[in-house]
Amino acid sequence: MAQLAHESGSFRYMEEIASGVAYEGRKDLGNVKPGDGRRFKGRGPIQLTGRANYRKFGRRIGIDLENRPKLAAVPSIGLHTALEYWADRALNTYADRDDIRSITKRINGGYNGMADRQKHYDHMKAFFK
Predict the structure, then answer these.
(1) Which burial class, exposed, middle or buried, applies to 116 when counting CB atoms under 10 A from its CB (0-12, 13-18, 19+)?
(2) Catalytic site residue 7?
(3) CA-to-CA distance for 20 and 41, rounded, in angstroms?
């Protein structure tokens, strides 16, 4: 929950605020066609990003997100993709050990926003005590 809260700005944004141009030409994300960066920018509470992820997780939930990427911003669909992403990356292994850094690396690719993620984690941990 803490990771999703950070990624979505405390669940206020189901679509990345940035334009997505930074993802243009990112073959590691499957963005191989002109405009893919903007088209497949982060959406949903885990900010699913890139043509390859939209294809993969869309198939897993039975929705063609590659051809209809804006659907990933629909909260119920975005949450479903986030849950599939979490399972695919075996993130419970790290969550069970309270390993925020490893989860952050696997979601974000780096350690962006660690202080905010920690704040959300502490809040969630206290809430569920």
Answers:
(1) middle
(2) yes
(3) 5
SS3 label, residue 48: strand
Query: Cα separation of 25 and 34, whole Å?
Result: 7
Considering the candidates 7, 16, 66, 84, report the single residue annotated as catalytic: 7
Pick the CATH number of 2-127 from 1.10.530.10, 1.10.3660.10, 1.10.150.120, 1.10.443.10: 1.10.530.10
Task: Return per-residue pLDDT of the chain as tens, 129 residues.
Answer: 999 999 999 999 999 999 999 999 999 999 999 999 999 999 999 999 999 999 999 999 999 999 999 999 999 999 999 999 999 999 999 999 999 999 999 999 999 999 999 999 999 999 888
pTM over 0.90: yes
